[in-house]
Write a structure and sequence with these properties.
The chain is an all-beta fold and about 160 residues long. The protein has no helices and eleven strands. Strand 3 and strand 4 form a beta hairpin. The mean pLDDT is about 85.
């Protein structure tokens, strides 16, 4: 390990030791500013690399991704690339409704994706991350979380 000063940093915040849940609604009001080499993510994770649910994942190109990764096999990934919206420098509400059969993603209360899942009651923790892939050309970048809310499923 060598000490070195950088003009940027990555960061992760999670609830792995304090809070997990396995059905209901999770939503967060988030404001991002990023470039091509910076990935911001709001996700749900378990004890192993999968299952994994991305409520928002930025990266290459415009827009963002929502994903459900049930197993380590790449062909098992389902989700959607959300294009046509500039999520930089503005607060948006990212939401996931998780019921017994489906995961449903929303942006500002508009449904953007829906998939079936096989989570079988596994509890996942909240993970927020801002990762620098390579030395960024476009800085500063930011990932600001105004609030996060989790609620139990409603009885229908």
């Amino acid at each position: 390990f060598m000490d070195h000063d950088f003009e940027f940093t990555s960061g992760t915040l999670n609830s792995a030791k304090s809070f997990r849940y396995n059905t209901g609604r999770i939503e967060a009001k988030i404001k991002m500013q990023s470039g091509d080499k910076i990935i911001h993510g709001f996700s749900l994770k378990g004890e192993k690399i999968t299952p994994h649910i991305d409520l928002v994942k930025t990266g290459k190109g415009s827009g963002y991704e929502v994903r459900y990764i049930p197993t380590p096999a790449r062909q098992a990934v389902t989700g959607a690339k959300i294009k046509g919206v500039n999520i930089n420098d503005k607060y948006y509400i990212y939401r996931l409704d998780w019921n017994q059969n489906e995961l449903i993603w929303y942006l500002n209360n508009i449904e953007v994706a829906r998939v079936n899942h096989q989570l079988n009651g596994e509890s996942l923790y909240i993970n927020l991350a801002s990762v620098v892939e390579k030395e960024p050309q476009e800085i500063p970048a930011s990932f600001k979380i105004d609030w996060i809310r989790v609620s139990k499923p409603t009885v229908e």
